[in-house]
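lol ok so funny story. i was supposed to be doing the assay writeup but got distracted and ended up predicting the structure for this chain instead. priorities right. anyway since i did it might as well share w the group, maybe its usefull for someone
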Amino acid sequence: MKPGIRVRDSSRLRAAGRSVGFFLASFGASYVGALTFYEPAQISLIWPLSGVALVWLMTATPRQVVPDLLLLGLAAALSVQLAIGGRDLALVGAALAVAPTLAMLAVLRRAGHWPRRSMSEPVLQTLQDLVPFGGALVVGGLTTALLRASGLGLLEPSGLANAVLTSVRFVAWTFTIGTLVAIWVDRPHQRTAPISTRRRVRLLEWMLTTLGAVWAVWLSFVSEDRLPAIYPLFLVVVWASLRTSLRVAVSLSALIGLAGVVLTLARIGPFAAVTEPRTGAVLAQGFVVCMVLVALVLSLSLRDRHSALAQAEREGDIARDRAALLDAVLTNIEEGILVVQDDDQIMLGNAASQHLLPHLLDASAFKLPDAHSPHTLTSADGNPLNYDSLPTRLVLTNRYDGARDVGVRRNGKLTRTLEVKATNLPTHSSDDHARAVVTLRDVTTEREERSELEAFAGVVAHDLANPLTIIVGWSEALLELSDDSASLDATQLRELAGRLLGASSHMQMFINDLLAYTLSRHDVLQSTTVDLSEMCRSISSLRDVASHVDIGAGIQVHGDAALLRQLLDNLLANAMKYTVPGSTPQVSVTAAGDHQQVTVSIQDNGIGISAEEQDRVFDDFFRASTVRSTYRGTGLGLAICKRVVSRHGGEIWVDHSVTAPEPNHGTRVCFTIPTGPRQEHVLPAAGLPVV
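and the output, tada:
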């Protein structure tokens, strides 16, 4: 047999089993009702039958309803025929079973409670489910009363009182039986309140609850004092609803109500004392509904409360997880994040914002530095910002929405450039405060690199244009002379070639310096122990033989040999180059230090650097005024030296105690280099200090 055939056969078997089960349940309920509650005037079998049928059909699909209703009518007719006899009674019983059930399903469909989204979904899941359930019962009761009052042409029509009694009985028994069936066919419910996990304690509590119910029934119905003491029964039901499951509470309340009905039929209890029997019956059956309804309302209310608390706890866990995640993101993000209110209160701020603006933020407010603070805030053009021109104030007053640069200065010196982006946040209806989210990003390096690139482009264009102009000019002169080869002698040819070679050499030197400038920043350090004394001797031997270089012995450092050689080559070249014409360069290399770092000093007898320019000679492309017109250069040599030293975690400077009021007084350049291994220092492009 093919797998598909087996699946279809299995589905048909399940459908057939469901139909057989429903028919047997309907027949059993109606047969018991017919034997137990039969009254020719009311056809009482429909009440337990309708309760079972309603719950059963609420779990059915629309396609299953028609066959189930046919089975329901057949079961009702057959049970009446077997238990009582009579074709007319059988037809009336079938009509009174099918018509109210169909009316109740129509009400539930209108309310959106049928068909159910899931067959396993409980019929009575929340307290709100009681509203359509109760409405369906009322409509079913009215339908029953109308049919019974008319007699359907098969029985003698009943009066209004009998019709009302029929309707009340229908609602009472359908509600009771239907509720019991609904809670027992649904999946198990949890207890509405925690009971001790000890089995003996649970048994003792249930025994006491049962004894309390028996005592309350005896006191209310059997006691000879005949006290109007119905309230103890409600106390027992309330206690059971608070301390047991929905099934136990509703079942206990139904048993109490049924006990009241049985005792009333036996002419025992307060309801039996009513002169009119029908009125007593209505009161007794209303008592059953009240018992079940109290238990159901309390149990479902508590279950809704526990579900709401559990949902709130789950949502709280989710919110805490999200808050922890957000906190982790805000803590680890490099950009500063602030949420500022229009009264300058900080609603949210991360650690980066405190680091970027430590002097502007206190525990709760965003503010400008006071008059005694060394810090100031400026715009991109350097003008100080006032309170109304802060980006937060601009966006909160709807005058600005975007990003702008803000400079942070200390004692007038720019220390950091921040890109500040402020955006309005939606205003909550419960709070009329305007809020803005502020993003702070440190763009110091980026802005310095941009400025450096602009300066670099300008200097490159200028310094390469000069030798190119020379090359082009003398090349044109050479071409003109070549037209008259008779006037071109060897002396002129050598002079022109020398000028072209000189201009080309200058371009080559400039390009080499640019390459060295780049490599001094990006090359990975290959640190090792380096003998600076031996390296200085090797470099000086390749330079001017007429120079006199005095090198201290045993200068040992730890660093990248290639970069350190570039450093010493630049410093020694400058010391030998910038001398008064006709004088012999005198260079002295000395060192002093400890186990952590060595301070190396290179002293020369050159033309020196003015005191005003000593702090600027390490800037990119800067050349001192004393050398611009006399000596060739690119202004990158000392900038390369600064980068190499900074990469090693050291410092380089011109000794201010050595000035040059007279020629040949010279310059002393000092730098520090570690003597042992250490972590490479990451060099920012701007090299600005941290606030």
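The longest helix spans residues 277-332. Residues 1-8, 681-691 have pLDDT under 50 and may be disordered.
back to the writeup now i swear
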